[in-house]
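Let us work through a complete example step by step.
Step 1: write down the sequence.
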Amino acid sequence: MASTTANQAADKPASPGPMKRIIIIALIAIVAAGAAGAGVWFFMSRHHTAGPVEAPPPPPPVFFALDPMTVNLLSDDGQQHYLRVGLTLKLADAKAQDDLTVHMPEIRSRMLLALSNKHPEDLATLDGKTALANELKALIDNPAAPEGASGPVAAPAAAAGKADAKSAVQDVLFTEFVVQ
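Step 2: predict the structure and record it as tokens.
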């Protein structure tokens, strides 16, 4: 009789335990979640690249160093005061540097005249230096347009007065600034 009990147990297939079922269900759920995530990533990445293409970044600015200048300043106290200033111009592109090089004698003359017309007290404060940088920027932007001129020479000055006109000089940077 013992053989009949053993035969019945051998004929009946072993049912998987509850742990095996949980593992199989968990594996199926993980595979399904991975497939869904991969599908979402695939379709979203295809949609993103089909969008508008970003414009390339603007070219890096060009820095143009000017020779240092020394000028006499106006003085109300009877003493001699000097200004030694070194400048570097931040330009939009290399073409602007070529244009400024052509007009450099005019630019230096205008800057020397403007600098020699300053008082030492005007240049002592940060606001005075900022105002000087802005004034020099305006002088440099329009080297060929004398004040009060009309005709084709004054066209750059008229264009610079408009808000939409792009300036060749983005900034005037002081590399040396000594007042004695």
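Step 3: interpret the result. Residues 31 and 37 are 10 Å apart (CA to CA).
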